[in-house]
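Worked Example 4.2. Consider the chain below.
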Amino acid sequence: MLKLIGIKKTFNPGTVNEKQALCGVDLVLKEGDFVTVIGGNGAGKSTTLNAIAGVWPVDEGEIIIDGVNVTRLPEYRRAKYLGRVFQDPMTGTAASMQIEENLALASRRGLRRTLKSGINAAERERYRDRLKILDLGLEDRLTAKVGLLSGGQRQALTLLMATLKKPKLLLLDEHTAALDPKTAAKVLEATDKIIAGDNLTAIMITHNMKDAIAHGNRLIMMHEGRIIYDVSGEEKKNLKVSDLLQKFEQASGGEFANDRMMLA
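Applying the procedure from the previous section yields the following structure tokens:
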């Protein structure tokens, strides 16, 4: 479903602020893979997601989504292949619009605009069914303004909107980092349900090592723009946080300096 071949990206080349963010990243995801990505600050995690999404062009390499080479496509032309949820719960929804109106916008993304009437009864019922997956009671609040929801409810709604049209690839960029632990666990539970239920291919960046181990079928560790560890299946299930710290030290030749990850 996804191939990254020799992806390189350098920011501010030729200046004192030059930073080589990606150093020839190679990655292949099969359909249905749910990959968690960990690494210290500046490891290249979000840069990789931005490269896939087309936020800016890569310097070298190829990006192929479901057999389509999207390397030279601008961000807006890749949008039909992707669903994306960001760290900030306020980013993915329109606060002044109702829950059902937000879902309708997501449902109509990429379709031709017409003068047909708004949300019909069949659509409304479909939205209710999808909202039940979240287990937040939002299915009974379809006409509530999104701005009145909590951060966790908005992030869960954003997740639903990003997956409503079953994208080829779902990109989750620390989508629970701004939430309290209880709400984060709820959103992660919904994430698992949606990805498994729709057989989505997904990449989830997280700073929480326990979450990286507990979720998905594959785990990748990045350091200084490279993938230094890639584990899946039973080996991943049996991992402990101490194992990941040891792997990082072995692969990087140094100690794990990111306090946030260690505390997580």
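The radius of gyration is 19 Å. The first helix runs from residue 45 to 53. Compare this with Example 4.1 before moving on.
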